[in-house]
Write a structure and sequence with these properties.
- The protein is an all-alpha fold.
- It has 5 helices and no strands.
- It starts with 7 loop residues before the first helix and ends with a helix.
């Protein structure tokens, strides 16, 4: 940790400031009708090493782990809040996109790669 975030008090203060900024940007983005994620990314860039340099983070493994855990939580929560009656009307179109669409796309790419690039089957 950098020296200005080394103490526990400074770290807790930084977390509190980020929490307050997060709440304010969420309210601001709701009024503008813009996704709050855009403002979160801007705050991260300003607080990070790009502008102010208050937060320095370069551990790709931890970032990947946080992203995977967030994705698990998002998908789990989405599955919990999805009703079967909402899913039933879109089963056929979604399965056709997931199978026929993928097969057609991969076939077209294979033919294009063979024709344009001269690749073997």
């Amino acid at each position: 940790m950098p020296e200005y975030v080394a103490s526990t008090d400074s770290f807790i203060l930084l977390l509190a400031v980020l929490f307050i900024v997060g709440v304010l940007t969420t309210r601001f983005s709701t009024r503008l009708g813009v996704p709050s994620l855009i403002f979160f990314i801007m705050v991260g860039m300003v607080m990070g090493s790009d502008v102010l340099g208050i937060i320095y983070f370069d551990n790709a493994a931890v970032a990947q782990m946080i992203g995977v855990i967030a994705l698990i939580i998002i998908l789990f929560e989405g599955g919990l809040q999805t009703n079967w009656k909402d899913v039933r009307p879109v089963i056929v179109p979604s399965l056709s996109l997931a199978t026929i669409g993928v097969l057609l796309t991969s076939g077209l790419v294979a033919v294009a790669a063979k024709t344009i690039l001269g690749l073997d089957w």
